[in-house]
Design a protein that fits this description.
Layout lengths: L8 H17 L3 H28 L13 H13 L2
C-alpha cells in the first residue's frame, strides 16, 4: 500500500464517518455539527478549485497549482482527530 493511499477517500471517508458517530454517541452534538460543517467546507474548497482548474484552466502556472489536494485535506482533517 502506497502512503498516498492513506489519504484516499476509501480510507478517510469511513474514518470521518467513524469520528462523527463517535462524537454523536458521546453526545457531543455541537462538536459533531462543527466537525461535519468544517469537513464539508474543506471538501467543498477542494472540489471548487479542481472544477475551476479542469473547467476553466484557473490555476497558478508559476507554482504548477492545479487545485488543493483532496488527499492532503482529508488526511490532515481526520488523522489528528483519530489520535486524540
Amino acid at each position: 500500500m502506497k502512503i498516498t493511499s492513506v489519504g484516499g477517500i476509501t480510507v478517510m471517508a469511513p474514518a470521518a464517518i467513524a469520528i462523527t458517530v463517535w462524537l454523536v454517541v458521546e453526545r457531543s452534538w455541537r462538536v459533531a455539527l462543527w466537525w461535519c460543517l468544517l469537513f464539508a467546507a474543506g471538501m467543498g474548497l477542494v472540489v471548487a478549485t479542481k472544477i475551476a482548474f479542469i473547467g476553466w484552466g484557473i490555476g497558478i502556472r508559476s507554482l504548477d497549482f492545479t487545485g488543493f489536494s483532496g488527499h492532503s485535506m482529508r488526511a490532515t482533517a481526520v488523522i489528528p482527530v483519530l489520535f486524540i
